[in-house]
Amino acid sequence: SELIRGFLLSGMPCPSSCPPGLLALMAPGLALMATFSLPSQAGDRRALPVEKPPGVKGRTLILLDVNTKSPVRIISENFLSLQLDPSIIHDGWLDFLRAGLQLRWAPPAVRCGAAAAWRRWDGQKAFSLLGKSGGRAGLAISLFSFPFAVDIVRSDIALDKQKGCKIAQHPDIMLELQREKAAQMHLVLLKEQFSNTYSNLTLTARSLDKLYNFADCSGLHLIFALNALRRNPNNSWNSSNALSLLKYSASKKYNISWELGNEPNNYRTLMGRSVNGSQLGKDYTQLRSLLQLIRTYSRAHLYGPNIGRPRKNVIAFLEGFMKVAGGTVDAVTWQHYYIDGRVAKVTDFLKTRLLDTLSDQIRKIQKVVNTYTPGKKIWLEGVGTTPAGGMNNLSDSFAAGFLWLNTLGLLASQGIDVVVRHSFLDHGHNHLVDQNFNPLPDYWLSLLYKRLIGPKVLAIHVAGLQRKPRPGRVIRDKLRIYAHCTSYHNHNYVRGSITLYIINLHRSRKKIKLAGTLRDKIVHQYLLQPYGKDGLHSKSVQLNGQPLAMVDDGTLPELKPRPLRAGRTLVIPPLTMSFYVVKNVNALACRYR
């Protein structure tokens, strides 16, 4: 439970009515969420002859074993992160975010061992949060195109400190008025996206104080992305505004990590002139020099370049950057959105070709990074269905979960250290909660992931997964299986337990028999299915047949597993996502951190 607490809370602008439990689940465990296993493509796949019951199609028995001796990957405990839309500066959610900062703290049993989280605020409307278990949390802000106003230096930060970070209470009428204001802002933002013209936004010192106070009171670490669009006549970065912000933050002794800009490969579209990778590398080197001149930030972390989808020109941009500044950044960052167009249908989320596009991009990024700085950490610092806020009744539906869980699995299995989900709450449809702060399907999925999944990724061995492909035809896996050590922070399971994560994209149920070290062990099942008549379009979820919903504004439901007797075959229903905790395996890879 400690893992889960930080995931939601750390990233959520929330009124006083916002459920504390809802936030609490998510804060500490953000990073733990992404600990998945190697794709099921690995391993032996001998077809096993199995007798099929009459009238049942495609129930081929699958034999599954896991290598429990040593992990194949160990990812960051901050693996899973969130974004929160910075439009809250425009639409007024910032004050509600401050009001809800205490809601992150759940009851002592949940709070115990609280995880840290990182957040990032960028000028393309992204505010992200990573959970880090067992440490101080973190918050990151990126002002990709926002100037910083230094003329407003007085704020209510001292008053907030005197209050001891208490929750401000807002009448229900204020929340209703805020929702109306946010709805109007939603239309403005959509217009800006379609016209590709964005209004300026100035982050005042007062707003920065509120944000930092929120992070500090919530136990988070702030990562701030500075404005990279301010340019000198020779196209070099004009750091004067950034220096003002750095000095102001240092005067307040704010503990912050830094970035510079967002999707620099698209600067021509935004400001009419481009910045190449080499120039941005020089800009990062300049920023590192500025940080070293300020004692407070002489050892601060620096991340970048946060490029867009790695097409040919973007790869060339990254190569230019790495040549100049590969050793300057602490992690290399990029973004991925699956669907470019604004039109899609629910069956798109079931296409394995779409799910697999990320794997190719990971390899491209890793090739460049390992060429110039072998072993450098890589972050996917922005991921969603589309870059334009998602699609209504699709990006926020049960079907989108297939894409999200597979993303976590691929990234973890291929060694990506951190992933930033777009987003927790915004004006679009990629979010985890709606405007009433009701959890959407991906929220419940993320919550379970954080509670059950640890950072150690295990190799799996599968037999009977699929038939041999026809000549000239590629058969892609519709049954995706990952394995991790169970989270150390989940005290319901002893160390040495293993958690399987399974996506079944088939329209028939599949049967899995656990073998080897997993044979004859008691298993706890967490099966997620859509709830209601809308099917895959549903925005509600059932766990083991029981609908998931907040008990009240401050209480999460109990996420009860379904115990399966030792040796029982796992039956995976069609078009579902599920977690299986194999208890008391005493796996050598999972006994110690």
From TrEMBL:
Q: Which domain of life is it from?
A: Eukaryota
Q: Name one GO molecular function term.
A: hydrolase activity, acting on glycosyl bonds
Cellular component GO terms, alphabetical: extracellular matrix; extracellular space; membrane
Biological process (GO) annotations held by this record are:
extracellular matrix organization
Q: Which PANTHER family match?
A: HEPARANASE (PTHR46145), INACTIVE HEPARANASE-2 (PTHR46145:SF1)
Similarity annotation: Belongs to the glycosyl hydrolase 79 family.
Q: What is this protein called?
A: HPSE2 protein
Species annotation = Climacteris rufus (rufous treecreeper)
